[in-house]
Amino acid sequence: MMVNMNINDAISAYNRVSNNAGVGGLSGNDKTGKTDESGFGALLRAGLDQAVDTQYKSEKVSAQAVMGKASMTDVVQAVNDAEMTLQTVIAVRDKIIDAYQRIMQMPI
């Protein structure tokens, strides 16, 4: 059974569980309210930011090709990079959702 869930649902669920358990969540906040830029949340955020940047680069190179300012080799490379990045993000999302579902099925 596949549940329709996106990455934000998984992150918010993780934050709720970790906040109830007294553990720092994905936001990286400690008990003083200061933001900690290390940990899983920061790593995930940096990866997603990089994925978005790759998508923007692909769009920019494609637009330059339409205007005749970029070669087809550049376009193919940028589109290939964007596709690989998207596939990676989808794979990570699927693993996070699978882990969340397994945790939710654990008996208490």
Output the number of helix runs.
Answer: 3
Q: Could you state the oligomeric state of the chains shown?
A: single chain
Give the C-alpha Rg.
Answer: 18 Å
**What best-fitting shape do the alpha-carbon axes yield?**
elongated
- The level of helicity is over 70%
Uncertain segments: 21-28
Q: Mean pLDDT across all residues, rounded?
A: 78
Strand content: under 5%
Q: Which structural category fits the helices and strands?
A: mainly alpha
Task: Report the span from N to C terminus.
Answer: 21 Å
Structure description:
This protein has 108 residues and is mostly helical. The chain has a domain at 34-105. The chain has 3 helices and no strands. The protein has helices at 7-21, 40-66, 72-105. The chain is elongated, with a radius of gyration of 18 Å. The model is unreliable at 21-28 (pLDDT under 50).
Quick summary:
With 108 residues, the chain is mainly α.
Keywords summarizing the entry:
108 residues; mainly alpha; 70% helix
Q: What layout of secondary structure does this protein have?
A:
Elements: H1 7-21, H2 40-66, H3 72-105
Helix pairs in contact: 1-3, 2-3
